[in-house]
């Protein structure tokens, strides 16, 4: 599947030199932050048209659909662009673990600062 990102959306994006935008996935209903990944224009276009979270792997340099191999999918309900245009917020229904380690979120491991 190949397509063009809406020019009105594309013009608002502030990309890294590699052409990527940070994407934060948040659980619908609870607001729990699940993971942070990257999107290029094609990944965002696919996400907007299929409602399946599609990201860009910097290490593999290719698109990947969340859960395509693991079954741990993200159904996208909403996508928002922040005021600076450099971060996307995806409100999703997460099925299974969001993190590649098998944890529910990628933020379950190390707490750097907690309530006293």
From TrEMBL:
This is Phosphoribosyl-AMP cyclohydrolase. The gene is hisI. GO terms for biological process: L-histidine biosynthetic process. It comes from Lentzea flaviverrucosa. The keyword Lipid metabolism does not apply. Mg(2+) binds at residues 82, 84, 86. Binds 1 Mg(2+) ion per subunit. Binds 1 zinc ion per subunit. It catalyses: 1-(5-phospho-beta-D-ribosyl)-ATP + H2O = 1-(5-phospho-beta-D-ribosyl)-5'-AMP + diphosphate + H(+); 1-(5-phospho-beta-D-ribosyl)-5'-AMP + H2O = 1-(5-phospho-beta-D-ribosyl)-5-[(5-phospho-beta-D-ribosylamino)methylideneamino]imidazole-4-carboxamide. The keyword Hydrolase applies. It comes from the Bacteria.
């Amino acid at each position: 599947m190949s397509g063009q990102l809406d020019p009105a959306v594309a013009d608002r994006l502030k990309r890294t030199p590699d052409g990527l935008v940070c994407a934060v996935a948040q659980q619908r209903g609870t607001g729990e932050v699940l993971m942070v990944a990257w999107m290029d224009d094609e990944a965002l276009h696919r996400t907007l048209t299929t409602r399946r979270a599609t990201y860009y792997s910097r290490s593999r340099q290719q698109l990947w659909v969340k859960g395509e191999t693991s079954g741990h999918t993200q159904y996208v309900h909403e996508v928002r662009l922040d005021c600076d245009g450099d971060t996307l917020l995806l409100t999703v229904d997460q099925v299974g673990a969001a993190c590649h380690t098998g944890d529910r979120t990628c933020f379950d491991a190390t707490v750097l600062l907690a309530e006293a």
